[in-house]
Amino acid sequence: MDSTPSPSSSSAFDLVSSALGRYIPRGGAAGAVGPADAQGDRTTCRRVSGGPTGGWQDQILGAVNMDSDLRITRSNLEAPVFAGVEAVAGSPFVDLLPAGDVPTVTRRLRQVLESGEAHVARIQRLRRGDGSELVVSMSILPAALPQEGLTVSLIAMARRLHLYAAETAIGTSLDIGETAQSLAQSLLAWGDVAAVDLDFTVWTGEGVTGQRQGRIRLRRAALVPDRVWPEGYVTAGDDLPGDASRLLAQAVRRDDVPQTIVIPDREAVERVLGSSRVVRALVPGDRSAAVACVPLVLDSEPPVVLGVAEVWRRADAPFHDSELFDLQELVARTAHHVDLARQHQREHTQVLALQRRLLPRSGGDTIEIASVYQPATPDSAGVGGDWVNSFPLPDGRTALVVGDVVGHGLGAAATMGQLSMEARALLSAGLAPDEVLEHLDETVTLLDDTESGLTAGYSALGSTCCIALYDPVSHQVALSSAGHLPPVLITPDGQAGPLPVRPHPGLGAEFALREPFHVHTFGAPPGSLLALFTDGLVEDRAVSIDDGIGRLTDAVAGVHPWDSLQQAARHVVSALAPVRQRDDVTLLLARMIGYRKGDTATWRLSARYDAPARARAQVSELLRAWHTREDTRDDVLLLVSELVTNAVRFAAGPVTVRLIRAGHGLLCEVGDTGNGRPGLGRGGLLDDGGRGLHVVHRLTTRWGVRWTDTGKVVWAEVAR
Length: 720
Prior knowledge:
Elements: H1 12-21, H2 35-40, E1 61-66, E2 72-76, H3 102-115, E3 119-127, E4 133-142, E5 150-156, H4 159-170, H5 176-187, E6 193-199, H6 200-204, E7 218-224, H7 242-252, E8 253-254, E9 257-258, E10 261-263, H8 266-273, H9 276-282, E11 288-298, E12 304-314, H10 321-358, E13 367-374, E14 384-392, E15 398-408, H11 409-428, H12 433-447, E16 464-471, E17 476-482, E18 488-490, E19 496-498, E20 520-523, E21 529-533, H13 545-557, H14 565-576, E22 585-592, E23 600-605, H15 611-625, H16 630-650, E24 655-662, E25 665-672, H17 691-699, E26 702-707, E27 712-719
């Protein structure tokens, strides 16, 4: 083997080998590992007593360098634990591997060679000259120049070190599949093949109990090593056959108590499994004939079995009691990580279902809507409180709402649902955007309570919201924002950019920071495109938030008028959002259409005694031009007469009458400068007070009131 390199050398191999030189003595280490040692514990050297060099028996570090053809150029495997690993200069590195692992490791080596990105800390087996195997943690490091090849650093996994490293690795993800894969990788230190099969309820996130009802269903969560398996063998993602699930469940739960079982040879395996179909599904090959089945038990009363971990090895290398203790310890230590992933999956599914339910379904005749919601990646903090909604208001306008609730998980989801529903109810009742935000601000303040139901211990202070109301007649948008990023507007004449919305603190701000919510009104002619979004779409650590909004503006400006809006929204998100993001991504695109000029008419009348008659005459002429049915025309004339009469009688100032031909109905609006809220009285049709509203109620499919800066508008819809 090569000596320690000179300090002037700077390759990855030299750096690793130089570090090893501080721990491995020159002139040889004490004793080699013989076959007997490999039989008992293949990854730990026995300590040799009686000499000062005995302590070096525990060294577990090594390095191998190879060229671009993956042939060994030099090696530093002087630690005794690597005895029998024949790293001969000029030989292929894959000669050190079991045959079944060669394709996977070769692929990884080539990837590092081509990409220049290191592949760090994977559990791998090395083949000794006597046929025994050594389990190592292998990292692949690229050289400074591709032609200089690769360096592989090796850490032989001593048992206790392996247990610690395995538990640390398994607890780093909240994804069920990744958690199971980490466990299987760690279990490979005790055998040739490792698999993890989980109860189906773990995958679905359902609650698990000790008293299981119905059939047992297992699904393979992880399988290592990564290789081509024979037809019929169960691989990751496959459901185990019913007989195999039942046999494994019964095997590890004898006398209703979870316990580890060992089947020592092929004959016993076939006898236990029974059918050839089950043998093909579970037994990985002819060589791996012995198996240890360890239950993943959730420590509760009674104990809950989440699944089964299986470790397969050759029958001529039986499991020793110490190995079984280590296996049980590892699985016991990590079972709760599987349950945490299950709970996270359950919460993730529930919150995601709520998010999907809140997404707008469609637009209408006057506006086209498209939305994209992309949740945070499963192993992040969890689905957040981003929400978006769009719905038609009874008076013909359309509401566009986007919000971002602080935090993740069920607390954020509960608050998100409450704010979304409250905003919809208030907007449908005719409140302006700034008034709705005032109510939401108060709600968030009240919800900041440590004993408030689902949100116990959770605070939504600082959440943001943006509300836009689109009027398809005037082609105007009224917008208010509470700490939210400004929407982006693209007009038909090519102007593009974020709206100049006055900044405002988020919802629930301290009293000293509170100020009235501002209403920003702007024109949105037909063909305009409005983009509302949450910060997850534009935030990037590498660029400023303004640059992120600029990128979004460019992407939305590239949407062609005849492009499918839903496809365009997906394209914008895929272009801006990373594949794995730590926050939710939400985008709402709205293409303004509006009413055609010939579908609306507006009259302004003085508040005099003859106003109802003048309104009837003008409306009658318009309805004839629209070829409205006679019975509908009579209803509309009576409706307009009653609404104008009420406006003249109970209000002051001019009266505005507007008629809109919308879809399958006619929308009548009568505005005045009064501030009283009309309502149905208890009297009948013959009573003088409130008679007009009883007539309105009988003639229309729905009616209501909305408030304006100068007064109010009473609207009513009549079916055509």
